[in-house]
Amino acid sequence: MKEIYKPYDEKMQKTLRALESNYSVIRAGRANPAVLDRITVDYYGTPTAINQMAAVSVAEARILVIQPWDASALKLIEKAIQASDLGINPANDGRVLRIVFPPLTEERRRDLVKEVKKEAEESKVAIRSIRRDAIEKFKAQKKSSEMTEDDLKQAEKDIQEMTDKFCKEIDSKAADKEKEIMSV
């Protein structure tokens, strides 16, 4: 890959990683520790991620177990989970928290699929925006005689190919996530 495309490729890669991160948080009926990634606990006045203050493990297909390293943090973690948008109440046995994920209803699955499609579309918009910025920059370089007309045409073609590649990848990831949601 040419050096001039590197910053745009990196931005597109970053967009793809952000999409993957967003998809990991969407729960598909299975227990996945990633659903806790966005929840922070006010631990001694500092917002702290749950995975930094407790061991999070998958006990069964639909059960997450959270075992804090500091027993006094158990109640704080429980409150943070209850206050989050997870919509699940953890069971506290005094030593660990258990989060049981209920099976998804058909309606909830459809809602999640809509969310997946929306995230994919937003990512594609971001990719296209990166393409537009790149093409504008190349046109400015041509205008200031840093680039020839042929180089500009080639750059536009290459950026379009890069955009198409990333959009296909986004579609593929969205299809995989939809299949995961609908098959559980």
Structure description:
The protein has 184 residues and is of the alpha+beta class. Helices cover 56% and strands 15% of the residues. It is built from 4 helices and 6 strands.
Strand order of the largest sheet: 3-4-6-5
Tell me the distance between the termini.
40 Å
* Cα-based radius of gyration, to the nearest Å: 22 Å
Question: Helix and strand succession?
Answer: HEEEEHEEHH
What oligomeric state best describes the polypeptide chains here? single chain
Estimate the global geometry from the Cα principal axes.
elongated
Number of strands: 6
Give the helix proportion (percent range): 55-70%
Q: SS-based structural class?
A: alpha+beta
Q: How many DSSP H or I helices? A: 4
What is the average per-residue confidence, as pLDDT, rounded to a whole number? 87
Q: Which regions have little confidence, pLDDT < 50, spanning 5+ residues?
A: none
Largest sheet: 4 strands, antiparallel
β-strand percent reads 5-15%
How is this fold's topology laid out?
Layout: H1 6-25, E1 40-43, E2 46-49, E3 54-60, E4 63-68, H2 74-83, E5 91-92, E6 97-100, H3 106-143, H4 149-183
Antiparallel strand pairs: 1-2, 3-4, 4-6, 5-6
